[in-house]
């Protein structure tokens, strides 16, 4: 069989021997640097409570929609993957995963999971239908060891900063507890994520707005109370260490409405009478308002547009959101984001990180925007694009226009805690590969490439996310 | 001059010596496998009647719009290429082709034709203005040999399955004759292609609909008879061995209308009163209906959207359709195909193969869709994208999200019978090249790559097209 | 430190040793060929007057929006880069540039400037904050030498043809003087650029139109005078040696209006009453009219669509146009350009060169259009795409459909006179790199690649631009 490929020291590095040598030496510079994760979806309570992970399926399969989706495409129903009201048991879920493993060949998830097997759990085997039960038992045994609890892994993974994603009304008590705990040395930061308070089309919007105003409106009512409450909750996040506010929108359309019009739309939405045009206008106005607040309170603004959420209604109704059928659409940034940039594109210390699932905007819109506006940073390849070839396409598409200084540094965006080291390691290897090619083509010097990779991996995320 | 490049054993394989060695060994695994061609445009009567091909121009130039278009771009009028009411003679057409040959350097058609020269006709020469007449005579001599008749080439090419593309009212007699002929061992299958019966904008739609209802409506009339007749003709195709129904649409927009509304639009169209909005809605409804019928009768559904047909009206009027000026446009799948997928995306045994001429949907829409919906398969790179670099871009764009298990296998889609081996060989070499890079980068093991290439070339088309 | 990378003989060539050897030999064929620059923004008066360039910042920084934009993105205000009503002094601008130099690593501008340093000015140093003043003095000393005047550099750069871009009412006196000057051997050609006379949305349109009609309407008034005047000015350009007319439009939308409707829109615009729909229709009509005139007078027509001009209004108001915030948008060519191609796509000797900032149209629209219509040529990668990786993506995207014969040859499009040799050299190295890969993959023969690179670099621009 030969070596388990997750153990190969040159994995993901370029095949050409000369370029590989350069890449290897660049990678060595950053291999051991601490992990900075300024955006992701790990739950702070998991770290705070430090409870053992329950079982292999609950750790690696059920909550990770990258994984469940591809098994589902192969014909396994969602309930067999641990979702829904009558989910299959963990061992059964795990068997489905092991049988489906060949479908992950060549995928980003396949690389990460193989890395986790080898480097977190010390397993040198590919999952198969035959070894499923044995692997389950081996992993279960590991998970009950004290070294595999979240806080121990946090340290073992060499994570310096981990940002979570939180509801505006979240108490952030877990964050406070971690910050107050002298036994925990890491930084776990909240992120303000107000989508469901800004987008009238969300079923919970009306209820969210009432709760928001009543909790944080400081006595003000209506639109004024709503704005005041958002500002107050952002302050609360800042006090708990937040560095950014994150916005998931269908389009990055922004607009500046006057207060009267904004209030009119707000009241239409509150009474359930806003049509699609009013809802879109209000959301665009609130994205603009979020930028204004970021300019004022210093939270870095990140925008993730272009995902058609919950594409398959029957799956959404039976199994909820984030179950693998958020499907990208084409994005227009240049015209949509312009009203925001007109007013804030050169605002002092404003940082706006733009992400995309639509690769076509990398060279066409994002690199040109980030290459002019001091506020704009190129978000790292995200979601379906957070994979080796896509990362190389990203660098190729943006570097010639925007260089290296305008990008955000790697973002893992993950719910899968144990995949964090594999994801960051993948990014470091790919950055080394891209730079190595430029060195081999005499486009940058090797000395400069060594400085650049340090900047990309370590200094960029600190600078862009104000860490 | 050195070796004729069409004879080089490493043609199309990667330049890096290490990667090439791996690619060569992967290619060897599949080089000799039989050809499975589940979608194309060869006429079944050509195989059935087994008449000699008339002459080199009629075989290689005039009917192949990939070829005529580029000669036309170089300034040669279409009638000089054998088209229209007063076409030039074959020898003259051939001379134009030979003079234009340098323009094919680097094109997909150039590779295929060079392969055909070397491997079908045993010619080791590049066409030139000087050798045009000599090549014509040499090819003409070959074409009159018994070994160069369609059935002999079918066997020589090692074709196991060849699907044709047929009008819903076609008798399929040639298919029946071939199936009944003990002297013919191949499978030649019809494909149901109803575009001109579904799209009211087609000039023949009204006439087609009347003929359809009268031929197969089983006594029913109006919209009910129309639906009944389509179902009946699909059954006829299934009985004649069809495995798929193919749909060429401008957009993949789908909608489910209730019967009353569908009937209303149908009657508007029938009386010539439907406007563009009604026509589009009806076509979208019928695409949805075709999916419903595929769920019921088991025909694999293939969709080819995004081609602006007959872009240059004067050429269309003088020389007809399929004369090289169908030009792609941007495609939106995520929202357009959603109504169909809501209802049939997880339907048992429903196979929906999605093609595109717009590369941007590979990573943005098709890989995410195929990576969730059990019904959805990624169509192989099609038409302008059925070429080495484009195939590599396809694999790079889709694999990290959807792996290898969700793609259709190679589709040659050709009218040019003698190009079939060259096209499939190109695909096999490129699949080997892509996999070899992943092996060299330690992203998959060489053992697994050997299994994958067998699956891609042989098992995938059988599985996806239910062969 | 090792060798200064701008001096490496293999710079920009592929890393693989075998491919590099082939690329090097192809590059050698064209390395010394004269420069043909059929489209750019150098001012003819600069050549005519042959005044020394004032200082390093005025030569390399302030007028080049590729350079100022990225320094601006790093936080330096535009006035500090020499723009606006109270600009910083040259030495201060130069210091900002040197401090910002690391941000140019990996960018196209970075390559060009490094090449200029090494090959125009004989400097082997990277700019830094520390050596800024010393470099400034060294460059300033060079600029005062007689060998560094524009005409001497023109000869030194081996420029054979240089096209400028000119206002329709420009006298073209500098061009006439150069043509009449026996001491100047180069060809400096004007280019007709009428955007601000065609697009009613331009603030100067009304005034331009009045001046145009009065200067060249030959007594006719209104729309008839306007058309007559445009035709007359084109004739004037042709007499002064112009070979092309260039059109910068937001979209390539074209339409043929009848004279009555065109006149109606024209008068609406003239009286300031045209709305957005009327303005767009009139511009589309005039783009069609420009094609008609090109068919008649033989000027090659070039179209550059898809740039959202002056994206940041505050910067535009303070510092004017062409200050780095023209941002691309998605383009649709297939449907938009169709009315023009219906009537002129096969017109005798009509040459239409289509450019794009939206890479997605390379394979989807431009290669298919240029692969059918004799009039259509693929414009070289332009603006944000005029860089090594983007050029390789262009060739990969278009060649398999359109071959090499349908592209325009390299276009430098530059305002930065001293960057011309570096830009053309970059293009030659990249064409050699692309062809070398095809040779190494046995897709074209080395003999043929040697002919092709000569054709691409030298014969194509002469043929396409009728030089």
UniProtKB/TrEMBL annotation, chains A, B, C:
Signal peptide: none
EC number: 5.3.1.12
Keywords: Isomerase
Catalysed reactions, as listed in the record: D-glucuronate = D-fructuronate
Pathway(s): Carbohydrate metabolism; pentose and glucuronate interconversion
Pfam family, one: UxaC
Record-level Gene Ontology MF annotations: glucuronate isomerase activity
Coiled coil: none
GO biological process: D-galacturonate catabolic process; D-glucuronate catabolic process
Family: Belongs to the metallo-dependent hydrolases superfamily. Uronate isomerase family.
PANTHER family documented for this protein: URONATE ISOMERASE
NCBIfam families: PRK02925.1
The protein, known as: Uronate isomerase
Species of origin: Arthrobacter nitrophenolicus
Phylogenetic classification of the source organism: Bacteria, Bacillati, Actinomycetota, Actinomycetes, Micrococcales
